[in-house]
Amino acid sequence: MIPAEYVAAAEEAAALAGAAIRPLFRSALLVEAKGDASPVTEADRAAERALRGFLGKRFPDHGILGEEYGAERPDAEWLWVLDPIDGTRAFLTGRPIWGTLIGLMHRGEPVLGLIDQPVLGERWLGVKGEGTRFNGQPVRTRSCKRLAEAELACTAPDMFPEADRAGFEALRAGARRISWGGDCYLYGLLSLGLLDVVAEATLKPWDWAALVPVVEGAGGSMTGWGGEALRMGCDGRVLALGDPTLLDEAKASLAGGGPRPQ
After folding, report:
1. 21-30, 36-45, 79-88: which range is least confident on average?
2. Which of 23, 183, 187, 209 is deepest in the core (most CB within 10 A)?
3. What pLDDT score was predicted for residue 57?
4. What is the mean pLDDT of the chain?
5. Which secondary structure element, helix H or strand E, spans residue 125, and what is its range?
6. For the range 2-7, what are the long-range contacts, defined as Cβ-Cβ under 8 Å and sequence gap of 24 or more?
7. What strand order describes the sheet that includes 63-66?
């Protein structure tokens, strides 16, 4: 059972991050940004500082791992995993398909996850042992028994190293259709029953830790490409399924064998 105060803290932290980010989204400064000191970078850093300051004060014994500022107490029993803006390219180009990710791991297992889209006012909350909620309302993934009927999504084709491209292309060929772009927002859409499969690679812990409880709490599964649990040190290849019965077929495709015959 995840303490209620941890869940409440994640929601409070998301509000603080949103307050730091919103003023720069589609701002004149953002349009004019050049170089490493761009407002999008400042938005990332300001939001992570807000998250770290709040969570560090509230839970001084917990660890924190963030994209911008690295790790503090990474071996702690409870570890907050933060990505202040997941979807920088979308943020930079004014598309509201990015989000703030706040995850909590207990002894290496993702147990709490929050996807917050502060501009649209959309929030997904997943807690181990409970159903995922979207803006406070329960949500479920949809049934999809065959890859040929599945809506597949991925952030970008260039995220796959050469060794992974054949497997992904086999999965793509077997799916009904593919949609590109979305980062963490794709996993939220999957939890709403609007997508069936998300397959990606080269993800870091702050990219996936918050997503696992959201997807699983909505009735889906989120694993590595071989069906293994996502934990620290994994290879960064992730497979999210709205209907877990697709796992064997999706694994076969990603392994390079193509869709299974029907």
Report:
1. 36-45
2. 187
3. 98
4. 93
5. strand 122-127
6. 2/104, 2/106, 2/111, 2/112, 2/127, 2/128, 2/129, 6/59, 6/78, 6/104, 6/112, 7/112, 7/125, 7/127
7. 70-72, 63-66, 78-86, 99-106, 109-117, 122-127, 133-134, 137-138
